[in-house]
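Input for the complex:
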Amino acid sequence: MTPRWKFWVIGGLAVAVAAAAIYFPMLRRRVKRAARIQQQSEEQARRELIQPVPINPSDPRVKAKLFWGSETDDSTLVPAVVELPLSNDAVLRSKQVLNTLLAGPVDTELRTLPPDAVLLAFYLLPDGTAVADFSEALATSIPSGIVSEQLAVNSIARTLEANVPQVQRLKILIHGQEVETLAGHLDLTGSFMVNTKLALPMANPAPMAPGTSRAAPPAGPLTPDKDPGKLAQPERKPQNSWTHERSLQEEE
Amino acid sequence: MLLDVGNIVHFRNLPSFALVIMLMIGAAVVFPSHDSTHAQQPPSSSPSQTNPSATSPQGGAAGSAASAFGARLQSSGLNIVVLDPAHGGTDPGARGTGGIRESEIVLDFAIQVRRALELQGFQVVQTRQGNENPSFDDRSALANAQRGAVFVTLHISSTGLPGTVRVYVNSDLPPVTDSNGLIPWDRAQAPFLGLSRKLGDLVQGLLAQRFKGSPENAQTAAVRQLRTTAAPAIAVEISSVTVNDRADLDRMAQGVGEAIAGGAAAFKPSYVVPSVAGALP
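Predicted:
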């Protein structure tokens, strides 16, 4: 009786091992597939969540002006005219044009923003300041450098200026936070001038007129524009009350 | 075990001990020791002798107060160039093919630029000597503690036409309107924008002659490093880390150095630092 019992136990174990050897690879494949599907659905859900800006076919189709890189000079921007159905609402319209800007031109070499960057949120304050909140990829995937970072910010500012006249200034956040620089160079602690014509009459902040920015310095010995006075101690957090005059190298 | 002080200093030897101490003090007065900041001093041929404040640069805004004495002696104008090799430490800056790192290349460029500036008689103070990464404010503070200095930050870009160089000055900032007469630290560049443009155009003009395809005039950009610098300040960005051979970049170093030094020398006569008591940048 005992040998027969042993035979069945060993036989059962052998069958179990064989079954496991066949089943485990299948299980592994299934888990991987499930993870991939979950990842895709998360990505899809994220995109659906952060891009609640459906292109409404009933919106009037207008010729939007989007600013991407130049074929001849990679330090300049050129406008591209794209026909899009754009909402009349300033916030929706801003999201629509910025998402199209992020999607990039046909020639991917002319992109100004990283392909994996996403517009997380967009607000328009009553004073005309637009707050655009981008995903971290905008800061981490952009080529580091003054030229490339300035091109990225200018492409956003110019695109908003050309398509959403209500936007006067632009403040860029990264994942909901204010950051010191975009990728080590360009200052993001202040805001950028977008629509100079509308913003100029405002008393505070008081950005310089664009015409005066490149005025030739007076002849003769030069001194600081104003007696410098003493320098105040640095603060832990900089005040965000200034507006950078946007400088453009643009081919129209 | 207790230490028996009496075994170390015998009272009967006190006069000779005091004599030795006095001799040591006398020697210290006659031959002052050199501290670590002397690593940043120029050769004796430079005009540093007239500017004691600049020979001991200190980080932080408090350094400006310490330089009051030097400021009085240095009302003639520009003597010092604060040279800033950007990035460093955990921040490599732009990274190119073949492991090229912006933080390393700018440090090599700084050697050439420094040499060219010293040949023009400038004293050079570097914001970093090795692979460390001072904050933006610390780098600015080094310039803000000087008087009659200009600030040059060196960068290598990720993009742009290889072999070209661009000079940037800070984009316009709102005028300083502090009723206390203090310049807000976060807009310290505001009163110097005109001077920065003048310096930037001079350097860019020389760079355009040496490196074809470079712009003729300085560009403006919201460069974070420049905003808190209370001195004529420019950013020089060389294109780019995407070169196939690092030697292509290295070959540019001498020309970049000579252009910066030539621009600073041309700028020097027109830069008159006001010698108003208490008006310290």
